Amino acid sequence: MKILYTCLLLSSLLFTSCFEYEEELSLVQYGSRDYALSGVLQEDWGAHSGKHYNMDFTIIGETSVFEENQNALGETYFTLSEDFDCYLFTEFFSPGKEGFQEGTFTALGNRKLSEAEGEFVFRRVQFGRSLEEAIFGENGTITIVITSKGVYRMKYDILMENGRKLEGTFIGTPQYLDRK
Predict the structure, then answer these.
(1) What would you report as the CA-atom Rg of the chain, rounded to the nearest whole angstrom?
(2) Is 93 strand, coil or helix?
(3) Do 48 and 113 meet the contact criterion of CB atoms below 8 Å apart?
(4) Tens digits of residue pLDDT in 50-78
(5) CA-CA distance, 146 to 43, in Å (whole number)?
(6) Contact, 120 vs 143, CB < 8 A?
(7) Per its UniProt entry, which superkingdom is the organism in (predicted)?
(8) Closest of 122, 126, 127, 99 to residue 111, by C-alpha
(9) How many whole angstroms separate alpha carbon 89 and alpha carbon 134?
(10) Rounded distance, CA 37 to CA 171, Å?
């Protein structure tokens, strides 16, 4: 009986650990290739057009690094290291002007932002594997959940302009940059 209990306990721990690891894995699939994701820069642009709150996110691949710089005015900005595997940029607009809200975002498309009052929308999704490459998203959804500890879970399901899908999840705490 003791052996059976021990086996059940070990199986339970192993089973739970596998699910926790899978849940925390950050990766995006583009075409037939998976890209591991490692970091995110969050740029807070504040209230936009009085009806939405604008927040931009740049997610980078595991071999990528954000390099912090300052301009002549002492303002901080970031660039990507020269050697990187991928980036994923998204420009989000959540309803209201008091702060960014979690939700499921859909493509703004050809509409004006003023025509999307009360909606969670993204204006631009851009994926690339070099600074010269920019593949734009056309349609789909991105769901953002923010935990009480400030961890963001971003689930992407996007149809890109070339007909390929970009799917995956990023989980992490953003590096915050106030642009207001």
Answers:
(1) 19
(2) strand
(3) yes
(4) 799 999 999 999 888 888 889 999 888 88
(5) 16
(6) no
(7) Bacteria
(8) 122
(9) 10
(10) 9
